[in-house]
């Protein structure tokens, strides 16, 4: 059978078509820079040996335009890999916020969709795009079973001291206000890859997912025990357009003293802050260019971005009471050697010793970038949320 996975991030859509049970990728692709100048689609077909790669630059104002292009490529009469959309039996969707209702993968029903919609305000850059993906897929592949795999699921193992906020207890029991954590599919996947590489299922691992959204997790024996995102995907690290951690009194100041409406503050913190706010660019490749051109704002932004990650490494080394490996993943984590170097700087006391030459090397597979004799491994592990989602879809369907 064919299984199709749609992973909508805040700035991108990634997709993969698999032949199952072989776990064989038939084609995959990346729609990136959605809503920015020079948006593009890269589409890879694996069925032939070399496989054609199609790259197109085109204006893509939103996720809907991106998805329409993807489906066009899949079913294209000459280049498409599908003769008939009905060949797809299962569509797996990444859904970012599962809230309290979903601790695990779910078959999508009208009730599930309603709950995903109810959570729009908690993940405004994501759940609407995820919901749209579900509706588009229901229309295009009406015979397929639709499955939701939630970013929040992996973090359900957080202990109360990590997921509760110091608010009156009723805010948790009545309103569900707690830390949920995100990027769970990615943290789980790369932590498992790293543990297998170390040959140590009980390993103490810090996973650092740096995409447009960024988060970290402390993983002990394959279970998430703490993570930097919380109630929504806004806290923690500095991100492409999101502020990450800030003092909540800033929000009151803006509303009470500076005339901001709550919706404007929500927009500011989600869409106009982070690297975009600091530099004018949200995409790390643009910020690298600005940095190399001597832009001081880009230099400060790099410094702040890396410093925030370092603080969480210190915190999570304490949470884990030790450290076996630090794992970099996602668009920035896998590709930006400078960020990795800045993050690892001055952490020798924790056992982190970066090898500069290894760090600069580019590769698409798991690699070690620490010095050979170092106690703590520093790994770059390419994430594969689509494969992890596909596996979880299959596991769910086999269990029902
Ligand atoms: N070669 C590269 N060098 C530096 N950064 C890169 C590179 N490729 C991608 N990125 C960065 O990765 C980020 C997107 O990561 P990704 O994981 O695809 O994000 P998301 O899933 O959150 O949309 C962008 O900031 C982009 O600039
Ligand atoms: C949760 C989140 O921030 O996702 P992404 O990095 O894909 O935007
Ligand atoms: Mg992503």
Task: Give me some keywords for this one.
38% helix; six-stranded mixed β-sheet; 15 helices; eight-stranded mixed β-sheet; Nucleotidyltransferase, domain 5; binds magnesium ion; 400 residues; 2 domains; binds adenosine-5'-diphosphate; transferase; binds acetylphosphate; Acetate kinase; single chain; alpha/beta; kinase
Give a description of the structure.
This is Acetate kinase. The protein is α/β, with parallel strands linked by helices and 400 residues long. It has two domains: 2-150, Nucleotidyltransferase, domain 5 (2-Layer Sandwich); 199-385, 2-Layer Sandwich (Nucleotidyltransferase, domain 5), CATH 3.30.420.40. It is built from 15 helices and 14 strands. Helix 1 packs parallel to helix 3. The longest helix has 25 residues, at 296-320. It is globular. The two termini are 18 Å apart. It binds adenosine-5'-diphosphate (ADP), acetylphosphate and magnesium ion. Adenosine-5'-diphosphate binds next to helix 10 and helix 12.
